[in-house]
Structure formats: C-alpha cells, structure tokens
C-alpha cells in the first residue's frame, strides 16, 4: 500500500490524497459503502462500480460466522468471492462482538460470545481475528479492539483502552501477510487524556494506518468534533486516517475538515431502504404522498441510473408496494450522492476552497 | 400490431413467428416475465433487457389498485413509468379478482370486491377494465373474463363461459384505442364442448389475438394438454395465441407443440427467490449445503451476469444470509434460462427439429 498526499487545505486540516492497494487507487477523502455480508445490500458489484466507490468495508465478524472465513479463503478470497476487484477493508469484529452479542464474556485474552446464527459458543481474540482477516484477504485489515457503549465511566474507558492497546500489539505480532495493511483503532470514548494516550501508544507501534473508533455511538456531532480536534493532530501525517462508522454528510465533512481520509457508513443504504433519499437540496422522504405523481427524478443534479431513468412517483410506487427494485434504486442513488459529495470535497481541497464548498453544500441540506 | 408466421413444424403444430408492436418485435414463441406491479421483482429494466425478454406481462388489477391507472397515465403510461421500451401486455384483472379477493360479488354486470390495500369496496366490469387498460397503455390488452377455480361443476362452468363471452363482447365495443390490440380469453375449464363453444364464439367476434385462460390452476399437465389439443386448432392461424400463466419448461414446450405463441409465468422469478435455479441439467436448490464451497456457476452453459460472475457458493451464501442480491441473481438467471429455452425452441422450429430439441431438453431436466 502507498499513501500519497496531493493537497492540503490552508484554512483547515483537510487533505486530499490517494491510497494505492493491490486492487487499485482510492482517492481520499473517500467514502466506503458497507458490504457487511460480502454484498452491499441490494446492489450488484456492477451497479456499485457505477457509483464510483473505490473501496468497500466488509465485516470479518459476519463472514467468520457465515459462510466462514475458511470457506471464503477456499473460494479465492473476498475479492473473488463477491466479485469486487477494487479495494476492500475488513473490520475486525470488535464493534460487532460488543454491540450485537449477548452473553459476552470479555477477558484480557479475548471475547467469548454466542453466535446469533446457531447459538454456538464462539471465541475471538487478536490472533484469531488476524487469522480470519488473513483468510478473507482484504487489502486493509483492522486490529481487534474493545468497543464500549456511550456514555461510559472514565475508569472503565481507561481500562478498556489499555486492553485495546495490548490487543493492537498482539495483532501487530500476529500479522504475517505482506499483501495486507494493518490499521490500529484509537479508542477512549470522549475523554481527552485517554484518547491522547491511546493515540500516542498506537502511533509508537507504527501501524500502516490509524482508525478512530468508538465515535458515532450516540455522543453527537459536537463531542465527535471535540475528539477529532485533539486526536487527529497526534496521528502521523503520512498515514491514512479512518473515521469508522461515520456518518451523515455533516459528520463526514466535519471529519474531512479535521484531516480524516476514510469513512464508512450504512446510512446511504439503510436510510435508502427506509425511504430516505439524500439530494443536493436536502433529504426527501420518498414515501410521502406529495410525490405520488411527481415526474421529477429524486435529484435533478444526480446522474445515477435511478435519477436518469425513473420518476419520484415510480420509486415511491415501488417502495409503497414493497418492491425490492425500490430498495435498490434508493441505495444506488444514495451511494452516488455520498460518492459525489466526496468527489466535490476532494476537488475543493485541491482548489483551496474546502470551507466554501462545505458551507454551501450543507446550507442546502 | 402485425403477426407474421415464419415457420411451422411438420410433425407438430409448433410455429415460429414475430409480433410487431409499437414497441418493437416479439419473436414467437415467446416467454414473458411477469411485472405484476410495474416491476419484474428484484430486477432493473436494464438487467431485464439483458435476459433478451422482448415483452412483459403487467397486471391491470394491481396497477388499478396502486398507484392507480390515472396516476400511471399522468406519468406518461406504463412504458415510461417503469422505463421499459419493449412490448407490454396487461392482464385484465379477471384472474386476480377471482383468485385473490374475498367478499367478491359477481353479477352479469361485473364484480364487486374489497381492495386488499385499503379495504375499500371496488367495482370492475368490462367497460371499466378497458378504461384502466387504455390508461395504462400496454401494447396488448386483455378482455375481462371470469376465472373459475379448479375443479368446478360443469353447469357452473357453462354459465360462467357465457358470461365471459358476453363480457368479451362488451370489451370489444368499449375498445377505442388504435394503439392497443385486444385479445380475448377462452375459458371453459377442462370441458371439451364448453371450451369449443367459447372458442368459436370468441373467434366469430374477431379479436386481434386469443388467449387460453383457466389453465395451470391445478388440473395438471395431462389435462392441460388435452384442452390445448382440442382448443388451439379452432383458433385462427393468422393470429397470436397466448397460454396464460404457464408455466414450467415441460408445460411451455407442450404448449409450443400445440401451436401456442405466447406464455407468461412467475415461476422463474418466484422459484428463483425461493432458491430454485433452473439449469440445463435440471433444477438446483441453491440453499443445499452441498453447494457451500461449490466454485462453479449456477449453470456452466449460461451466459447471464449471475453465471458469468458468481459461484454457487456465493449465491448460496447470499440466500442463506437473506441478502437481496441473492434474489436478484437467481431471478436474473432463471429468466435467462427461460428466454434461452425459447430461443432454442424457435431455432429448432425453423430448422425442422422441434421434437428432437424438446425431448433432448426435457431429458436433462
């Protein structure tokens, strides 16, 4: 992997660059659609390519449970399995184990939990998670971290941070794949001293990139910005920075302003399936009866397949009739909207007017 | 509309031709995927075009209930609404009213029933059904008929047939659209004399084409063939014949052998969504665990997007994980399989070896 900075904004910490992996180039800042179970819900890889997404985030946790990482490996790895020849990041499963599972037992060694699929007891620790991600074969893989709920008591956050740092170190030692880059995940909830200590310790270990985790979990945009404000300056300039699970356009543009290079979120697909379209003039609840005979596309400024071909009235009809094509068209459009926003953000950084772009973009939202 | 016969089989009544509508050519015998609610479930029009489907069947009944035929008309008609620029047939709603509705009250004037969407009382009769289909604007529209369950007492079938004939006549009188061709529907369950009388009466009225309805409702393949055996010879040679709601490959090939030109059925899409793939070597239940690591495509002889790009293992993973992409890929493949079967059937009729083709094809199913 190579990371090259192309331009930095004068007025903010925003930066524009490119990550090169074995599966091509990711222009940054980049938004990655989420393909939890080796598919970005409702879309073919061909449709996804048309959104100009350059990388996807898949979940090691889900693929470990089903179909199993060894199955994916046997079938040639995740790229071949899901027929996506651009870049892939796999999340380590930390977030999923702690947020989705009950009956979870955490020790310094690892996490025992119950599979939601077959009820079997499962155990994950840093070494196993690295094995899983090696088998899946994503271009960028994540260290196994402990994710806490929000809010959380400071003492617990500090203890958890030390565990995350130790686990990151074990991941680093267990990482033996030349084709895959390992990123660490900074935790520490909304506590400045804990985030700073976590960041410094992880930076010392020299990972290939750094993610900021444990945000977008209910703390809100203001606190998220506070954390980014004191965390990102401690991260090395020459390595990619990834804000995990973020987010709405406002959060993403704030993240870019703080020097973040990578984002992922289910919002465009999940909200799309729920009938919410993002447009250059703000959100549009496509099920509303006011769109019943609306001949216009979802967004007149969008060039996606959905906007080029279908009226709001038709897409509304599909959603109110529970037709799957409605879910696909909404997902496709929303991902295009996010990717297009990123493209404009990159352009504005290169042209030195990111803040203008940001305030104009958000004023219409 | 023009209907031109290109070739007839020497040994059977099979024939090959082409129907030309304002929206292009339909090579016959043709299989039409079903787009009940103005969408062939899970597929974009672009994906559908790739299956080489030349016509779709949509349901006037469903579109009348939602979004309403006047809405579709306001939006430029069904072709523009659903972005399908090839031919469309709309079914009259007869089958739906009688098979889907409760609290149905039938008189010679028409049918009163309760909308399953909002519980409102609705009334359809031949004139209203023609209005609805004129508003939708399909290339071929169907007369309003009474559909009986199977089995059904002969006296009731005879009375119902007379009603269907009267309603067909009222449809003919109410039909005032030059751009749309009106087909009548032959009813009569499995009774030879009733089918024959119905056929003769409808043929006298000179419709643009003739459908055989009330089959594929539980009577089985043998009885279906019996009905076709005595019904199709009474239909005019120079007009298209449409066997409604049929069927499995065996039923379709039998229909072709009896001189049928058009077929529609939900089997490829519905069975696909349920995990059943049609292949050149028979049906394949993709959820079976034997496919867990199967690297092969669904059908090595198929050139569809699903078979060109994905393994059985991946599609199995999608279906067992309840991922929508699995439903799309299965639907796409199955429609391609049916369209490809039709293409080969047409070719075999032209080459004079339809029976050979049929027996070889079915021997592998």
UniProtKB/TrEMBL annotation, chains A, B:
Binds 1 zinc ion per subunit. It comes from the Bacteria. Catalyzes the base-exchange of a guanine (G) residue with the queuine precursor 7-aminomethyl-7-deazaguanine (PreQ1) at position 34 (anticodon wobble position) in tRNAs with GU(N) anticodons (tRNA-Asp, -Asn, -His and -Tyr). Catalysis occurs through a double-displacement mechanism. The nucleophile active site attacks the C1' of nucleotide 34 to detach the guanine base from the RNA, forming a covalent enzyme-RNA intermediate. The proton acceptor active site deprotonates the incoming PreQ1, allowing a nucleophilic attack on the C1' of the ribose to form the product. It comes from Candidatus Scalindua japonica. This is Queuine tRNA-ribosyltransferase. GO terms for molecular function: metal ion binding; tRNA-guanosine(34) queuine transglycosylase activity. Coiled coil: none annotated. Homodimer. Within each dimer, one monomer is responsible for RNA recognition and catalysis, while the other monomer binds to the replacement base PreQ1. Zn(2+) binds at residues 302, 304, 307, 333. One of its GO terms (cellular component) is cytosol. Signal peptide: none annotated. The active site is at residues 91, 264. Its EC number is 2.4.2.29. The keyword Metal-binding applies. Its cofactor is Zn(2+). Substrate binds at residues 91-95, 145, 187, 214. Belongs to the queuine tRNA-ribosyltransferase family. Keywords: Glycosyltransferase, Metal-binding, Queuosine biosynthesis, Transferase, tRNA processing, Zinc. Pathway: tRNA modification; tRNA-queuosine biosynthesis. GO terms for biological process: tRNA queuosine(34) biosynthetic process. The lineage of its organism: Bacteria, Pseudomonadati, Planctomycetota, Candidatus Brocadiia, Candidatus Brocadiales. It catalyses: 7-aminomethyl-7-carbaguanine + guanosine(34) in tRNA = 7-aminomethyl-7-carbaguanosine(34) in tRNA + guanine. It is an enzyme of class 2 (transferase).
